[in-house]
Amino acid sequence: MHVVHVASEVFPYSRSGGLGDVLGALPAEQARAGAEVTVVSPWYATLSGTVPEVWRGELSELPRDVSEVRVAEERRDGVRYVFIGLAPFDRPGLYHEDDVYRFSMFGRAVLPVLARLGLRPTILHGHDWQAALVVALASLAQLRTVFTIHNLQYQGKWNMHEGRAWTALPHHAYGIDGLEYYGEVNLMKGGLNFAHQVTTVSPTYAQEITTLQYGEGLEGLLTRLSIEGRLSGIINGLDQERWNPRTDPDIPAFSDLKGKQAATTALRQEFGLDEAPILATVSRLAEQKGMDILIEALPELVKDWNVVVLGGGDPLLTAALVGWAQHPRVAFAQGMNEPLSHRIYAGAHAFAMPSRFEPCGLSQMIAMRYGTLPVVRETGGLVDTVPHDVGFHFREAAPSALASACDAALNTPPADWARRTEQAMSLDFSWSGPAQQYLKLYGRTTGH
């Protein structure tokens, strides 16, 4: 079986969040399981000179002003990585305001580039709206396809006139059973309609998105896919080498509770914290992640906790945390800093995730692997990954609910806390199980 993954980012070449992490780990695990695996992603400006170029030419399938294509390729961990370079991607950063145009051009280039390289997939697996056009084109070309929703909130919508010109699909593809969404082009909807199977990154999120609350306007279509047996959820895994407290070079390595104390002491010293327990979060600063809920809960939390936050994003949330960082029990590090994130995961006692919705979430898995107990809102992948006898759950997306759950954590007897911590560190979040589930889904989809 030849699996071709198409995604807008893949760690360690490009990454803005969990999508890059998934593409950095799942393909390698599938290769270890015996599949032939190729990953196709844009050749961003930051990759220039780091990956060998293997082909350069023009593609007649693209508009003349972007028809020149450069292709780079590298093999690692048994996976073939193919990067497609186009003029719209020759700029700093991964994402921009004209991304519907940029990823339409990328989507139209993928199948012709695969053909030039002599690659024909058994199955094409597209990830999120940036790969949705590739899924539609592959399905129309009689290839079998799987489309994974990593976050339904982002859909790739644009006006119909320009969207049709950019995507260049057959006329029938722009109807209500294709890309049309209230008079606009919606790439996510196109991926959902044309894919042979649709997955999300957790079983609970697969159920939630069929409801009005979480369906982002596509709940009717998703309900139909669920009824037809075309929608399912497969929980993400965690890179066991990258996130391993026993071998992590960024922390005082540990394998038990006693060893974890050294990481906690180091984190206290780094941020000048007192002896109160440490509640931490590493997150995008966004309302989806409930960071406004955490900030509003700080007056209660700082009575009993030190609070450490690492993240960047919303300017208003950032400004609020900058202000709170003047408090002796609040530490805020702005932006993303991977070595620091390792130190925070390892040194904190508890980890807050008050998400309004969470398709899967990796932070809670990382926290548990490092013996840090999650305090999570009951939604999406947080339900599927945090056992009630390990972490602390709350239902309402409100500061008082988060504070109450943190109180429950604070009042947990030491013996029970130790048991929870040891159990957390023993949980299996490896990619081997999810990789096998995807391979079985591919088999059912292709008849192999």
From TrEMBL:
Single GO MF annotation: alpha-1,4-glucan glucosyltransferase (UDP-glucose donor) activity
Annotated GO biological process: glycogen biosynthetic process
Superkingdom assignment: Bacteria
Record-linked InterPro entries: Glyco_trans_1, GS/SS, Starch_synth_cat_dom
Domain Glycosyl transferase family: 267-413
Record has 4Fe-4S as a keyword: no
Reactions catalysed according to its record: [(1->4)-alpha-D-glucosyl](n) + ADP-alpha-D-glucose = [(1->4)-alpha-D-glucosyl](n+1) + ADP + H(+)
Keyword Nucleotidyltransferase assigned: no
Residue ranges constituting the Starch synthase catalytic domain according to the UniProt record: 2-223
Alphabetized SUPFAM superfamilies for the sequence: UDP-Glycosyltransferase/glycogen phosphorylase (SSF53756)
Pathway(s) where this gene product acts: Glycan biosynthesis; glycogen biosynthesis
CDD domains attached to this UniProt entry: GT5_Glycogen_synthase_DULL1-like
Pfam families cross-referenced by the UniProt entry: Glyco_transf_5 (PF08323), Glycos_transf_1 (PF00534)
Keywords: Glycogen biosynthesis, Glycosyltransferase, Transferase
Family to which the UniProt record says this protein belongs: Belongs to the glycosyltransferase 1 family. Bacterial/plant glycogen synthase subfamily.
Physiological role: Synthesizes alpha-1,4-glucan chains using ADP-glucose.
Protein name, UniProt field: Glycogen synthase
Annotated organism of origin: Deinococcus cavernae
